Q: What sequence folds into this?
C-alpha cells in the first residue's frame, strides 16, 4: 500500500511540473486576498484528478473541476455570472487520463446546479440526475441565471464518491446592474474590494486512497480526517491566493477588514476616533459568502465580531429579518451570505487617555505569559495599531499592530488536522488599524541642543507627556560669540548679495541683515534646536507614508510647566531622512545632506499651543525606509529656531506626538 | 415561607436547611450591590467575596473581580461511578498567593466551571491562575480564557494563544472585559482547545442589560422571575482516559459516550446545586485520585424548579462538538435571543431589525451557539401525574434531547435516583418541575443591586 501510494505521489508531482509554471503565472495576476472570479457566462471545464497537500505533510488524491485552459484545482473555479446571463458550461471528462493511478477506475461525470431552474443538458449520455460525460467525453449545460446569489455547482453522478472526491465549486450570480450588491437590494451593498468566499468541506483520506488505487470504496465507512476551507486546511488557509507551494489549492481564505468609517456623518457613533469628514470612507461592509459542500453540517464560529446573515441558498432575507451570529451551523449543501463591518464599541486607543485600558490591564508582563510554540500573530500590544516588544526568540507574524481572530468550526474535532489541533476548518480574520498602520518613535536623538526632559516614549501618545528639547547654546565658531553683531566668513560665494537671509553655523541660525555680498556680515543671532525621532520595523512595501507631528514651544528652559510664548514665535521645519542620498551618514547631523524638507507647510510658527500637522510624502516611500543594517527605519527631524537681535531669548521645544501612518503590504 | 423564617432556618444550620442557593442569603456568594453601576459590587464587597470561596461560588461568580484557577481533577460520569473521569477545569479561587492557591486548589477541578454573571457597562476583570496538573506533571500546558462571542475584544483578551498570549503554570493573567451587549455567551479555554474544551474547561457567561438586571435584553418583554444557565456538552471517554494515562488521542476520532447539561447527565441533572450541607444522597461526590478526597466536582445543577405562572428564562449554550435538538414537551418555548442578540424589533449597531422571535417546541443548537428562551410555567394540575422531590410536590416536564442515543449514559439507560429522578432515562435531559401551590418554591430574593441570582435550586 505504501509503495503504491508513494509511486502515485511521485508520479503526479512529475506530471504537474510542467503546467505548474503557467498556472502560477496566471494566478499571480489575481488579487492576493478575497474571492477570485472566473468570469462567464461561458465556461469550459475539465473534470480531472490531482493531489492536495495538507499541513501535516499528507497528500490526498482528489477529483475536481478545473478550467480547460488552467490547472487542476480544488475546489473548482468560482463561476461568476450576471443575473440574466445565459450560462453555458461545457464539461470534458478528463478522468480517463490517470497514468500515475493505474488502478483508478474512471467514471462518468456531470454537473448539477442546485438553485438554478430549467437547466438543459446536451451531449453525453443520460444519467440519474442529468446527462453525463463519459470518460474522455463531453456534455454541455445551459441555463439562465435568473436570481442573484451564492450557489453550488457539483457532480450529479455517483455523488457519494464524486462529492467526497472534490467535484464541486461555487457559482456566484451578481444582480443585474448592481455588481456591488449581493442581491438586487441596496441593503446588501458591499465593498467590492472586500468580497470573500469560505467554502467548507471535509475529507476522509482513506476513501480517497481507495479511489486512487482502485480498491473497494465503501462510503458507509466515512471517517473524516481533514476539514477544510476553500480546499485548504488551516494554517494553509491564511496564505495568499495562488501561493506557489499549494499549486492545486489556489484559494486562500484570510479575511481582512478595516474599521468602519462614515465621513459623511460625523456624528455616526460607529465612527472611530480620527474618522472625520476628510477621511477615506469605509462605510460598506465586507461580504462573506459561505458554502458547505460537505456531508456534515458545520457550526462556524467567527471570533472578533458577529456576522450578519442576509441570505441563505441564494434567497435574501427580508430587509429587517437578517440576524447576527457569533456561531451558526451551516447545513450540508447550504449557502449563507454574511455582511461584516468592523464597528468597535470601545475604540481602545493608547494615544487617548480616556480610551486607554483601565488599571494597567494592558501592560503585559512576559514573565507571566507564554507564546505557543514561540510563534505568534500577536502584536505585543493590547491596542489595535500598536506594537510592543516581544520576548527574545518569539517569532511574530504581526506587521503593525493589526489584530487577528480565528474563524473556525466549533465542532472542535474539525478544528484539527487529523490528530493535531489548531488546524483544519479554520481561517483568520485580520483587522487593520483605522487609517492604516501607525508607527511611533522607538528612539529620539538630539543633534542640536540638549534634552530638557522626557524621551521617545513621550512621542507615542497625544497626552500630557512631552519630549522636551532646549536649544544648543554652547558651540560656536571660534570667531563668534553669543550676541556678537558681526562675523567674518571665508567666502560669500553662493549667498544672496542683497536682502536679509538666514545662515546656519553649526546648530545655530543667524540672520544676515547687513554686509551682503561681502565676507563680513552683520548678523542677528538666533537659537535653534534639532532632534529626530527614529522609527523601526516598517515593512518592505509599505505605501502611502504620512508623517504627523504635534508639538509646541515654550518660553522656559527649566521647570515642568510651559511658560507661554506670546510673540516672536519659533519657526518649525520638519524633515525626513532620504536614505538614498548618503545612507545613515546623510542624516547624522542636523545639517547632513540627507534631510529632505517635508511638503508645505515647511516652515511655520509654532507657539505654546500644540500644533498638529500631517504631511503626505510624495512618490515612492522606498527612499525614506532604510535598508540593509537600517532595514525598516525611518527618521524624522524637527528643526526649531527663534531669533531676536542682538541676544536671542530662550525657548524650549515640546514634542507631544510623532506618528507615521502607512499602508501595510 | 417568609424571608424571616428562611433566614432563621438557614442560620440554625443543617437539620432542616431551607434551600441552597444564594439569593441574598449567602451574602458572600452573590453580588450585593453598590457602586455607580447597578449590579456592580463595591470594592469592600468584592474583597469579601474573594477572601473565601463558598459553595455558591462554585455555581455562579459575579462582581467586577472574578478569580479563576485552572487545574485538573476528576468527575463522575453517570454509570461509571467506580472509575472517575479525568478532567481539566476552572474553579473559583480566593484572592491569595499563587503558592497558596497551588497548595489548596491544585488538582481540584470542577466541570462545568462557575457560571459568570456580568452586567452591561460594568467592567469585569477575570484573573486566571494556572495551577498545573497533579495527575500529569509531565504535561506543562498553558491555559487561556476565551469569552466566546464577545464583540470586538482586544486580541490580547480574546484568549487564543496563537494570536495573543497564554498563561503558563504558576502564572496569572487578568483578562479585562467591558460588556456592551446583553445576552448569553460562553467561556472556555482556547489553549489546544480541541483537548481542553473537551476536558471540561467550559461554562456560560451572561450579561444583564444595564438598569434592568432581571430582563434578558433591554426590553420589558424579556423580564423573568427566574433564570437558568444550562450548558450542553458531551464527554468522550477516550480523551479523558488517555489524558489520564499519558496516551495520545486523535480528535477526529471523536465519539462521545455521555451527553451533559452543566456537566451532569440525567439523573445527576436533577440533583440540586452542591452544598456541603446537603444530605449525601443529593450530592455528586467523586473520589479524587489527586488527593484522596471525595469532592463535589460537578456543583452546577440543571434542575429547573418553578411555580405556576412564573416567567422563566433559559440561557442555553452548546460547547459540545455535536449539534443537539432539544425539546420541552408540554411547554412552548419562546426564543427571544440568539448569540447574545435580541430577536425583537430594534436597532443594533446601525442596523434596523424587525421582530424575529419565534415560538417552538424544539431547539436546534449547534456547537458554539446560544439561545435565550422564555416560557411561562404552566398551571399546576392536581389531576396530572404528580411527583415529590426533596422540596415538595410537582408536575414534571422534561427538557431533553430529541436524539434517543443521547438519552443514555455510555449506552445504558439511567437507573433513576434521589430527588425524584426516574429510571430509564439518562444523558442530556433534565426536568422542569412546576410545584403545587402548597409547595411553592420561594420567590428569589434579589440582591442589593436588585438582581435575581441564576440557577437557584431548593431542597428542604
A:
Amino acid at each position: 500500500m505504501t509503495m503504491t501510494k508513494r509511486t502515485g505521489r511521485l508520479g503526479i508531482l512529475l506530471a504537474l511540473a510542467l503546467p505548474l509554471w503557467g498556472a502560477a503565472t496566471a494566478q499571480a495576476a489575481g488579487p492576493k486576498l478575497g474571492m477570485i472570479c472566473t468570469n462567464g457566462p461561458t465556461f469550459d471545464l475539465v473534470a480531472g484528478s490531482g493531489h492536495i497537500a495538507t499541513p501535516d505533510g499528507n497528500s490526498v488524491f482528489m477529483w475536481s473541476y478545473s478550467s480547460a485552459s488552467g490547472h487542476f484545482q480544488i475546489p473548482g473555479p468560482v463561476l461568476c455570472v450576471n443575473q440574466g446571463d445565459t450560462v453555458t458550461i461545457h464539461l470534458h471528462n478528463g478522468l480517463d487520463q490517470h497514468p500515475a493511478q493505474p488502478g483508478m477506475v474512471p467514471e462518468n461525470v456531470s454537473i448539477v446546479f442546485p438553485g438554478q431552474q430549467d437547466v438543459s443538458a446536451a451531449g453525453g449520455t443520460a444519467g440519474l440526475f442529468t446527462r453525463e460525460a463519459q470518460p474522455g467525453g463531453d456534455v454541455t449545460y445551459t441555463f439562465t441565471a435568473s436570481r442573484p446569489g451564492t450557489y453550488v455547482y457539483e457532480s450529479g453522478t455517483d455523488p457519494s464518491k464524486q462529492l467526497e472526491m472534490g467535484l464541486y465549486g461555487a457559482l456566484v450570480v451578481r444582480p443585474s446592474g448592481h455588481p456591488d450588491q449581493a442581491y438586487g437590494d441596496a441593503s446588501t451593498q458591499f465593498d467590492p474590494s472586500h468580497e470573500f468566499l469560505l467554502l467548507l468541506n471535509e475529507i476522509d483520506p482513506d476513501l480517497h486512497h481507495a479511489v486512487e488505487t482502485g480498491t473497494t470504496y465503501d462510503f458507509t465507512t466515512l471517517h473524516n480526517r481533514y476539514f477544510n476551507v476553500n480546499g485548504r486546511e488551516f494554517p494553509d488557509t491564511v496564505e495568499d491566493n495562488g501561493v506557489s507551494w499549494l499549486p492545486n489549492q489556489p484559494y486562500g481564505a484570510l479575511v481582512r477588514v478595516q474599521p468602519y468609517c462614515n465621513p459623511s456623518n460625523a456624528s455616526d457613533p460607529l465612527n472611530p476616533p480620527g474618522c472625520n469628514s476628510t477621511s477615506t470612507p469605509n462605510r460598506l461592509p465586507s461580504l462573506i459568502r459561505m458554502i458547505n459542500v460537505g456531508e456534515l453540517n458545520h457550526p462556524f464560529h467567527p471570533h472578533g465580531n458577529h456576522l450578519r446573515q442576509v441570505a441563505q441558498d441564494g434567497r435574501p432575507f427580508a430587509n429587517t429579518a437578517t440576524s447576527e451570529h457569533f456561531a451558526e451551523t451551516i447545513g450540508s449543501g447550504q449557502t449563507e451570505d454574511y455582511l461584516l463591518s468592523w464597528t468597535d464599541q470601545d475604540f481602545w486607543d493608547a494615544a487617548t487617555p480616556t480610551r486607554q485600558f483601565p488599571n494597567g490591564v494592558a501592560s503585559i508582563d512576559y514573565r507571566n505569559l507564554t507564546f505557543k510554540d514561540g510563534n505568534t500573530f500577536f502584536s505585543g500590544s493590547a491596542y489595535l495599531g500598536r506594537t510592543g516588544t516581544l520576548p527574545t526568540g518569539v517569532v511574530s507574524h504581526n506587521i503593525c499592530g493589526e489584530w487577528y481572530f480565528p474563524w473556525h468550526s466549533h465542532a472542535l474535532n474539525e478544528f484539527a488536522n487529523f490528530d493535531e489541533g489548531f488546524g483544519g476548518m479554520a481561517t483568520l480574520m485580520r483587522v487593520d488599524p483605522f487609517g492604516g498602520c501607525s508607527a511611533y518613535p522607538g528612539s529620539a536623538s538630539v543633534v542640536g541642543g540638549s534634552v530638557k526632559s522626557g524621551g521617545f516614549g513621550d512621542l507615542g501618545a497625544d497626552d500630557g507627556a512631552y519630549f522636551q528639547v532646549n536649544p544648543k547654546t554652547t558651540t560656536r565658531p571660534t570667531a563668534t560669540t553669543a550676541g556678537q553683531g558681526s562675523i567674518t566668513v571665508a567666502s560669500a560665494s553662493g549667498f544672496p548679495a542683497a536682502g536679509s537671509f538666514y545662515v546656519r553655523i553649526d546648530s545655530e541660525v543667524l540672520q544676515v541683515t547687513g554686509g551682503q555680498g561681502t565676507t563680513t556680515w552683520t548678523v542677528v543671532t538666533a537659537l535653534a534646536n534639532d532632534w529626530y525621532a527614529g522609527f523601526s520595523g516598517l515593512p518592505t512595501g509599505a505605501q502611502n507614508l504620512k508623517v504627523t507631528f504635534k508639538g509646541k514651544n515654550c518660553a522656559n528652559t527649566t521647570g515642568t510647566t510651559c511658560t507661554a510664548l506670546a510673540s516672536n514665535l519659533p519657526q518649525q521645519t520638519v524633515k525626513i531622512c532620504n536614505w538614498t542620498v548618503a545612507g545613515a551618514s546623510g542624516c547624522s547631523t542636523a545639517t547632513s545632506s540627507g534631510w529632505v524638507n517635508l511638503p508645505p507647510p515647511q516652515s511655520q510658527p509654532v507657539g505654546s499651543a500644540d500644533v498638529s500637522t500631517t504631511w503626505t510624502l510624495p512618490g515612492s516611500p522606498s527612499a525614506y525606509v532604510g535598508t540593509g543594517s537600517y532595514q525598516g527605519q525611518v527618521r524624522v527631524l524637527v528643526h526649531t529656531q527663534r531669533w531676536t537681535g542682538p541676544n536671542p531669548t530662550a525657548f524650549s521645544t515640546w514634542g507631544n506626538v510623532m506618528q507615521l501612518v502607512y499602508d501595510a503590504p | 415561607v417568609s424571608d424571616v423564617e428562611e433566614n432563621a432556618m438557614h442560620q440554625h444550620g443543617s437539620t432542616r436547611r431551607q434551600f441552597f442557593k444564594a439569593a441574598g442569603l449567602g451574602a458572600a456568594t452573590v453580588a450585593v450591590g453598590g457602586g455607580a453601576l447597578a449590579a456592580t459590587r463595591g470594592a469592600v464587597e468584592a474583597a469579601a467575596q474573594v477572601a473565601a470561596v463558598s459553595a455558591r461560588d462554585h455555581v455562579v461568580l459575579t462582581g467586577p473581580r472574578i478569580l479563576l484557577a485552572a487545574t485538573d481533577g476528576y468527575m463522575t460520569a453517570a454509570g461509571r461511578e467506580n472509575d472517575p473521569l479525568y478532567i481539566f477545569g476552572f474553579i473559583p479561587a480566593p484572592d491569595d498567593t499563587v503558592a497558596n492557591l497551588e497548595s489548596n486548589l491544585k488538582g481540584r477541578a470542577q466541570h462545568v466551571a462557575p457560571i459568570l454573571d456580568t452586567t452591561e457597562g460594568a467592567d469585569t476583570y477575570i484573573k486566571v491562575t494556572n495551577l498545573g496538573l497533579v495527575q500529569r506533571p509531565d504535561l506543562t500546558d498553558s491555559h487561556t480564557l476565551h469569552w466566546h462571542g464577545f464583540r470586538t475584544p482586544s486580541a490580547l483578551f480574546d484568549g487564543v494563544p496563537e494570536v495573543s498570549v497564554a498563561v503558563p503554570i504558576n502564572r496569572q493573567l487578568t483578562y479585562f472585559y467591558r460588556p456592551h451587549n446583553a445576552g448569553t455567551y460562553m467561556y472556555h479555554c482556547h489553549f489546544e482547545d480541541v483537548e481542553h474544551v473537551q476536558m471540561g474547561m467550559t461554562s456560560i457567561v451572561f450579561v444583564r442589560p444595564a438598569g434592568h438586571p432581571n430582563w434578558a435584553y433591554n426590553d420589558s418583554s424579556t423580564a423573568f422571575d427566574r433564570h437558568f444557565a444550562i450548558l450542553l456538552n458531551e464527554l468522550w471517554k477516550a480523551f479523558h482516559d488517555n489524558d489520564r494515562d499519558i496516551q495520545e488521542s486523535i480528535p477526529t476520532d471523536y465519539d462521545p459516550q455521555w451527553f451533559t447539561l452543566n456537566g451532569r447527565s440525567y439523573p445527576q441533572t436533577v440533583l440540586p446545586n452542591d452544598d456541603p450541607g446537603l444530605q449525601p444522597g443529593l450530592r455528586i461526590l467523586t473520589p479524587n485520585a489527586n488527593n484522596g478526597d471525595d469532592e463535589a466536582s460537578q456543583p452546577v445543577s440543571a434542575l429547573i424548579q418553578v411555580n405556576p405562572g412564573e416567567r422563566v428564562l433559559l440561557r442555553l449554550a452548546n460547547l459540545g462538538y455535536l449539534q443537539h435538538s432539544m425539546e420541552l414537551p408540554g411547554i412552548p418555548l419562546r426564543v427571544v435571543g440568539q448569540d447574545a442578540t435580541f430577536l425583537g424589533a430594534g436597532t443594533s449597531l446601525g442596523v434596523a431589525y424587525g421582530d424575529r422571535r419565534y415560538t417552538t417546541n424544539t431547539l436546534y443548537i449547534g456547537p458554539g451557539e446560544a439561545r435565550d428562551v422564555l416560557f411561562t410555567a404552566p398551571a399546576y394540575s392536581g389531576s396530572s401525574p404528580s411527583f415529590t422531590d426533596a422540596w415538595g410536590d410537582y408536575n414534571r416536564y422534561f427538557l431533553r434531547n430529541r436524539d434517543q442515543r443521547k438519552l443514555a449514559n455510555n449506552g445504558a439507560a439511567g437507573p433513576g435516583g434521589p430527588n425524584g429522578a426516574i429510571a430509564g432515562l439518562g444523558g442530556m435531559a433534565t426536568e422542569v418541575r412546576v410545584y403545587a401551590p402548597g409547595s411553592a418554591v420561594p420567590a428569589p430574593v434579589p440582591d442589593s443591586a436588585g438582581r435575581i441570582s441564576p440557577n437557584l435550586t431548593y431542597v428542604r
Helices of chain A lie at 2-28, 159-165, 205-213, 579-582. Residues 2-28 of chain A form the longest helix (27 residues).
